[in-house]
Amino acid sequence: MPTVLENYIKERLRHKAVLLMAHVVLGYPSLDDGMRLLETMVAAGVDVIELQVPFSEPLADGPVIAGANHAALERGVTVRDCLALAGEAARTFPIPLLLMTYYNIVYRFGPAEWAESMAAAGLQGVIIPDLPLEEGTRCYAALRRVAVDSIMLFSPLTPPDRMRRIAAAGGGFVYCV
Prior knowledge:
alpha/beta; 6-stranded parallel beta sheet
């Protein structure tokens, strides 16, 4: 059964050949600037925005995004600050917002509490790049229960049988690295 995010993407693709997803590190350069940046992106026609929760060791990110993560953390940005800003943005902007975070943050919350926090904020999906399919059963089930899509990842080197399992486990879309 298609999710809200999947339906949104399919509908947008009826009107546009290519959709644009942008990325913002929450709290960089500041929380207030982040809201203004999101407003600018939405006004410019961005279709989906990935909101990254700053993390001390952002392994899936290059040096620019890692630097933004570290700067936000040095300014004292917390996970709760990020969830509050994401919730405000979800109430303000008419496009899907996804959260990108690392599993350590989800683990500290607990998968069920994390999923409920995301749903309460009005977020459509989550990208957890360091949570393999085989190790994320509890987390992915908790997200499904609250209708938040797990955006799964695979690379060009992922074997076709694994691609099928990954695609079946997630929702919204598949993030090709």
